[in-house]
Amino acid sequence: MEKHQMFQNNLVSIVMRTVGERPREIRRALESVLANNQRPLEIIIVYQGSDDERWTGVQLLSGEFPDLQVHAIRNAGLGDRRAESLNIGWDTAKGRYVGFLDDDDTLEPSHVELLQKAIEGSGRAWAYAQVVLRREDEALQVVSETRPFRRLAFSLKALWEENFLPIHSFLIDRNRLHVSLRYRPFCEDLDRSEDWDFLLRLAFYHEPAVVEDFTATYYVSTGSRNTNLSLTSGSADEERKRHNLQAWERCKLLVEQRKGMLIAPFWWAQDYFSFQTRSPEEDVPTQAPHRMFRQRVVRKLIRILERWL
């Protein structure tokens, strides 16, 4: 029997990865899961690290949230194993529906319910909702709020250019997934952009349902506790900054290779996704008529194919 047939049909599993450094944020995240209207619901916490005290703290969380099914798992791997932790959580999850939540972010009470209804109502393999970006200080007080991720209509072309979907914005129905995405779907060679790489493949095979409500919050700290250097303006250790930039460049190359693999079988995709914005000197009227016509045909074709790939 295939593994995807053994999921609990009504169960929703939320996978959270952590290194155990942010106990206040982890509890805030868990409280937001507990507040969700949807039941049954379980959360899989994957701790990656060698600190036994932190691991003990993660294990004790299940006792703090007795009304929530909390399962703690340890990833003893060395180095940055964020993608592996996602795969461990994915394999451990018993639910047919799977979502994700970083340990410093939160969900609104309607998040899971709205996404699950969108999937069931549309018959699609996944759905995403809108996410608020909040910047907060060391005391977890919000200092600003914006909505840069808002997308009320999905475009594979837009996702190809940048990732506008935070990892906790979407929910997946594993019974509907393309076979290539059913088992350990996150690329463990990546320690950056692992969610984008996954989303590119997910969206290439499955058009999502879109929920217009804002049902989740993405937090960015203005203090030193934030580990995402690309989203902060504070100074950081030069060695850490250098390592971070090298990691981003390496992972960017791997993601570009992934894109090439996805579009390789489709002649129209190679032309469409490699299309570059023309400079002012290359005004549209100077283009050959047949090239302009071909570009229009390709754009129309991609809109059609986005609906059923």
Number of helices: 10
Arithmetic mean of pLDDT: 87
H/E element order: EHEHHEHEEHEEHEHEHHH
Strand segment tally = 9
CATH hierarchy, class of the largest domain: Alpha Beta
What is the fold-level CATH name, i.e. the topology of the largest domain? Spore Coat Polysaccharide Biosynthesis Protein SpsA, Chain A
Helix and strand composition category: alpha/beta
Count of folded domains: 2
Q: What is the end-to-end distance? A: 26 Å
Shape field:
globular
CATH superfamily of the largest domain: Spore Coat Polysaccharide Biosynthesis Protein SpsA, Chain A
Using the CA coordinates, give the radius of gyration. Answer: 21 Å
Taking pLDDT < 50 over at least 5 consecutive residues as the criterion, the unreliable ranges are 228-234, 275-287
Proper CATH architecture of the largest domain? Alpha-Beta Complex
For the largest beta-sheet, the strand count, sense and barrel status come to: 9 strands, mixed
Q: Bin the strand percentage.
A: 15-25%
Instruction: Give helix % range.
Output: 25-40%
In brief, what are we looking at here?
With 309 residues, this protein is α/β, with parallel strands linked by helices.
